[in-house]
Amino acid sequence: MQDSSEYIVIKAKDQGVQVIGMTRGQDTKFHHNEKLDKNEVMICQFTDHTSAIKIRGKATILTKYGTVETDQ
Fold first, then answer.
1. Which of 28, 36, 57, 61 has the smallest set of CB atoms within 10 Å of its CB?
2. What are the structural domains of the chain?
3. How many CB atoms lie within 10 A of CB 12?
4. Using an 8 Å Cβ cutoff, are 44 and 21 in contact?
5. Lowest-pLDDT range, 5-9, 47-51, 56-60?
6. How far is 28 from 6, CA to CA, in rounded Å?
7. 10-45 per-position pLDDT tens digit
8. CA 37 to CA 2: how far, in whole Å?
9. Distance between CA atoms of 49 and 62, rounded to whole angstroms?
């Protein structure tokens, strides 16, 4: 297993923000889906199985690189 210290924090600014985990490997596929309610917070971790996280909806995303606001 690789170093799993990469985390992001997602705070939903609207109802129904989707957080989708995507797999590693030759073919990128969806492997996990969550829906967040307004003001709900989720902490996500990159792992051997998760190489990308897709976010749909209005949210604030905090990473070690800074803060990102989605446009919706």
1. 28
2. 7-67 (2.60.40.50)
3. 22
4. yes
5. 47-51
6. 19
7. 999 999 999 998 887 777 777 889 999 999 999 998
8. 31
9. 21
Matching residue, tokens 């989707």: 18
Residue whose entry in the numeric block shows the structure tokens 């492997």? 31
Tokens of 46: 């990159």
Beta bridge partners, 17, equal 36
3-class DSSP assignment, residue 25 = coil
The pLDDT, as a whole number, for residue 15 is 96
pLDDT above 60 for 1? no
pLDDT of residue 51: 83
Q: What are phi and psi of 48, to 5 degrees?
A: -60, -25
3-class state of residue 52 by DSSP: strand
